[in-house]
């Protein structure tokens, strides 16, 4: 089976080479789809050096549109049987792919989330981020009859045709609550597996803020009661 690695990238010049090397080192048949979301720090120019790499494709947004918009673009270009979302930084460990992909490859699941909280030794960047993530997860479980420990995780893995079938509208970080809500409303109980996590600080390039947590709660409420 072919794994499509979907990478939204915005101003990640410090980590783009390292994360691509980590992904390439994973022993799976894969394509890497990078959507450069209007980077201005040299990321776009650096990605041009990968033009000759057979399993890497780079798509450009001329203007920054947001993580959700970049993921939606990547979905349009993927050709794999399974898809995983991968940030362009080094917070998540691609060597976790095989375990996350296995339940989808064997046909037992359509969706798997990688949880940072099942693995007790993982650190977390800021206490406020930790609390915000736990609140979003609790609201998700309450509204959608789930038993998640980590709704905002980056590592969301899908049977590719199932992901294609979900009508997404997200532009920014609300990709996570929107896709979770729409998966749950199809009657799927999302399964989690433990993953490694190496948080970075705001100074190191972390972009999400508490306002995105408020937006996530709004999105969860909207798709539960309105959509």
From TrEMBL:
<protein>
    <submittedName>
        <fullName>Glycosyl transferase</fullName>
    </submittedName>
</protein>
<dbReference type="InterPro" id="IPR050256">
    <property type="entry name" value="Glycosyltransferase_2"/>
</dbReference>
<feature type="domain" description="Glycosyltransferase 2-like">
    <location>
        <begin position="4"/>
        <end position="132"/>
    </location>
</feature>
<dbReference type="GO" id="GO:0016740">
    <property type="term" value="F:transferase activity"/>
</dbReference>
<dbReference type="InterPro" id="IPR001173">
    <property type="entry name" value="Glyco_trans_2-like"/>
</dbReference>
<keyword id="KW-0808">Transferase</keyword>
<dbReference type="InterPro" id="IPR029044">
    <property type="entry name" value="Nucleotide-diphossugar_trans"/>
</dbReference>
<dbReference type="Pfam" id="PF00535">
    <property type="entry name" value="Glycos_transf_2"/>
</dbReference>
């Amino acid at each position: 089976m072919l794994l499509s690695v979907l990478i939204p990238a915005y101003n990640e010049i410090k980590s783009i080479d390292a994360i691509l090397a980590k992904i390439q080192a994973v022993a799976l048949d894969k394509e890497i789809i990078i959507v450069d979301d209007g980077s201005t720090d040299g990321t776009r120019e650096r990605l041009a050096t990968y033009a000759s790499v057979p399993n890497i494709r780079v798509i450009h947004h001329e203007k920054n549109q947001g993580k959700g918009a970049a993921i939606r673009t990547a979905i349009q270009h993927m050709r794999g049987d399974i898809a995983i979302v991968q940030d362009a930084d080094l917070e998540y460990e691609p060597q976790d792919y095989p375990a996350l992909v296995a339940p989808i490859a064997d046909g037992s699941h359509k969706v798997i989330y990688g949880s940072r909280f099942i693995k007790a030794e993982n650190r977390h960047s800021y206490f406020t981020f930790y609390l915000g993530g736990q609140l979003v997860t609790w609201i998700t479980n309450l509204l959608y009859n789930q038993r998640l420990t980590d709704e905002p995780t980056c590592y969301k893995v899908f049977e590719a045709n199932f992901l294609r079938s979900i009508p997404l509208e997200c532009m920014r970080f609300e990709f996570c609550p929107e896709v979770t809500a729409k998966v749950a409303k199809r009657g799927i109980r999302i399964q989690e597996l433990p993953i490694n996590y190496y948080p970075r600080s705001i100074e190191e390039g972390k972009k999400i803020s508490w306002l995105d947590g408020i937006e996530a709660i709004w999105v969860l409420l909207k798709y539960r009661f309105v959509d």
